[in-house]
């Protein structure tokens, strides 16, 4: 840091009193400008320059399958929209719901408002680089006491009229303003990333609720088919009872099996209504007026390219937000340390002042005052030290938050990669179990028709077949939700080779 070059210490020690004179102020203003220039040349921003904290990044994902041909990892900017990643599922109804999120979601609207606040704070901080200019017009009459001994104005009424223009400016000698701007900019960037985090989360929640709802639709369709089959089995058993082949207990078991399936179907309506209401809230519509009719949906999860772990630091908006808040905390350390150094305040006032209103606009009424003031704290009982220590601790905490966010991101990716891989294997085996249970049920019904087995054996086989079919549907649904969670964990966007770069 260079030494301060001071031409006239007398002008720095105190602010001159207002003087009324006809002498031109140019010489004094030039002196003040020379002082300010010398101080600015000698000044520098105190505090540590920001360096992004180091994190341990693995070279590959442990659970990742080989990347499918035709896909590549995206590298979006932190505050760029994550894009319509939901289109990869090829569901027109889902696309229509997702399109409503950005427009109608109140959570997103609040995040947009918070981003506007953060950007306004940046503008406010930047205003510190410039002088503050004010103007005033005063008219006053003052009567002085007659009991003031030997005072020239004793007992007199003195009018005073004045029109003044004043300017004050604090040069950024030690980086207090620049560090404040740096912190505000970093916080604004973090707010932009927060907005993208909310958007990504809202879109993912819509997709999760949608696939859960469609999973219930698939289960309901399965139960509808099962109820038809159980009704046919009940009719068969009733006919056999009527001709004396089957017993009354066989009829009761068939009735019980049918009623149980009907109860399961009705029970699905509770969850479906809740998912439907959740989707309505997410897209900004009243749950009372929103309705999503039952429909078939594809339960073939798309291939999600995970890329390499280092991409995650660029793709995840929550990681970007945590890193930007670390930069802001680092700048606050500089702001705290700048308080140890004196402040230079440059001020100038000029205008017209007169005891007679008629003389206010004449040349002899001119008045001006110009000069710097150097202000410093000599003793504060350790307040500045405590503030600096607090800022450093805040920075250390933000570094820990950033590293924890990165670790959590890697965990979420690995969790969902593992879920997709394991669920795919489990679903394949479960579909084999469904085929086997359907064959067993068909054989059991044939044996029952010829009287070689009792209806209790049919009931057991029917229950096993229904359980296996519902488990298969549920595994398909879980694969879809795991794929959505993987997209969210990866940051929400990738490109296919057919997309324009």
Describe the structure.
There is one protein chain. It contains ten helices and six strands. It has a domain at 1-43 and 131-171 and 342-375: Outer membrane efflux proteins (OEP). The longest helix is centred in the middle third of the chain and has 67 residues, at 176-242. The protein is elongated. With 501 residues, the protein is α+β, with helices and mostly antiparallel strands. Helices cover 58% and strands 11% of the residues. The protein has a four-stranded antiparallel beta sheet. The chain has a two-stranded antiparallel ribbon with strand order 1-6. GO terms for molecular function: efflux transmembrane transporter activity. This is Outer membrane protein OprM. Keywords: Lipoprotein, Membrane, Palmitate, Transmembrane, Transmembrane beta strand.
Strand content: 5-15%
Shape: elongated
The arrangement of helices and strands along the chain is HHEHHEEHHHHEEHHE
CATH architecture of the domain at 1-43 and 131-171 and 342-375: Single Sheet
What is the number of helices?
10
- CATH class value of the domain at 1-43 and 131-171 and 342-375: Mainly Beta
Strand order of the largest sheet: 2-3-4-5
Per DSSP E runs of 2 or more residues, the count of β-strands stands at: 6
Largest sheet properties: 4 strands, antiparallel
Mean pLDDT value:
85
The secondary-structure class comes to alpha+beta
Q: Percent range for helical residues?
A: 55-70%
Using only C-alpha atoms, the radius of gyration works out to 39 Å
CATH topology of the domain at 1-43 and 131-171 and 342-375: Outer membrane efflux proteins (OEP)
Give the termini distance in whole angstroms. Answer: 47 Å
CATH superfamily of the domain at 1-43 and 131-171 and 342-375: Outer membrane efflux proteins (OEP)
Q: Extract low-pLDDT stretches.
A: 1-26, 38-42, 68-82, 495-501
């Amino acid at each position: 840091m260079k030494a301060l070059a001071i031409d006239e210490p007398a002008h720095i020690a105190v602010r001159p009193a207002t003087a009324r004179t006809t002498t031109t102020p140019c010489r004094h203003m030039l002196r003040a400008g020379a002082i300010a220039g010398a101080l600015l040349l000698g000044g520098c921003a105190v505090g540590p320059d920001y360096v992004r904290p180091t994190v341990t990044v693995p070279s590959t994902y442990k659970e990742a399958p080989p990347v499918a041909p035709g896909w590549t990892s995206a590298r979006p900017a932190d505050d760029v929209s994550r894009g319509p990643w939901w289109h990869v599922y090829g569901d027109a109804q889902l696309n229509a719901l997702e399109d409503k999120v950005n427009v109608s979601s109140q959570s997103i609207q609040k995040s947009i408002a918070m981003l506007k606040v953060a950007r306004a704070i940046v503008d406010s901080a930047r205003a510190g680089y410039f002088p503050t200019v004010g103007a005033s017009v005063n008219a006053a009459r003052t009567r002085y006491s007659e009991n003031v001994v030997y005072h020239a104005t004793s007992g007199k009424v003195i009018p005073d009229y004045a029109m003044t223009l004043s300017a004050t400016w604090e040069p950024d000698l030690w980086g207090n303003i620049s560090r404040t701007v740096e912190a505000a900019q970093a916080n604004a960037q973090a707010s932009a990333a927060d907005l993208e985090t909310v958007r990504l989360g809202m879109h993912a929640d819509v997709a999760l609720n949608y696939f859960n709802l469609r999973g219930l639709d698939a289960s309901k369709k399965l139960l509808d088919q099962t109820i038809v089959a159980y009704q046919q089995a009940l009719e068969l058993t009733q006919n056999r009872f009527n001709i004396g082949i089957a017993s009354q207990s066989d009829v009761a078991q068939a009735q019980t099996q049918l009623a149980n399936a009907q109860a399961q179907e009705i029970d699905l309506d509770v969850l479906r209504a809740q998912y439907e209401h959740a989707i309505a809230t997410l897209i900004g519509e009243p749950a009372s007026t929103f309705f999503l009719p039952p429909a078939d949906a594809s339960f073939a999860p798309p291939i999600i390219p995970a890329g390499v772990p280092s991409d995650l630091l660029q793709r995840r908006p929550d990681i970007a937000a945590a890193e930007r808040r670390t930069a802001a905390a680092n700048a606050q350390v500089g702001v705290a340390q700048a308080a140890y150094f004196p402040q230079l305040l440059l001020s100038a006032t000029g205008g017209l002042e007169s005891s007679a209103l008629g003389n206010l606009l004449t040349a002899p009424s001119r008045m001006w005052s110009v000069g710097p003031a150097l202000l410093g704290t000599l003793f504060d009982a350790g307040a500045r030290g405590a503030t600096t220590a607090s800022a450093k601790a805040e920075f250390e905490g933000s570094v820990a938050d950033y590293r924890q966010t990165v670790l959590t991101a890697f965990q979420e990716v690995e969790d969902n990669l593992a879920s997709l891989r394991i669920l795919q294997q489990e679903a394949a085996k479960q579909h084999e179990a469904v085929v086997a249970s359907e064959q067993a049920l068909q054989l059991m019904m044939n044996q029952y028709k010829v009287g070689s087995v009792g209806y209790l054996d049919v009931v057991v086989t029917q229950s096993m077949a229904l359980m296996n079919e519902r488990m298969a549907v549920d595994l398909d649904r879980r694969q879809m939700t795991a794929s959505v969670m993987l997209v969210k964990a990866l940051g929400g966007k990738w490109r296919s080779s057919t997309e324009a770069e």
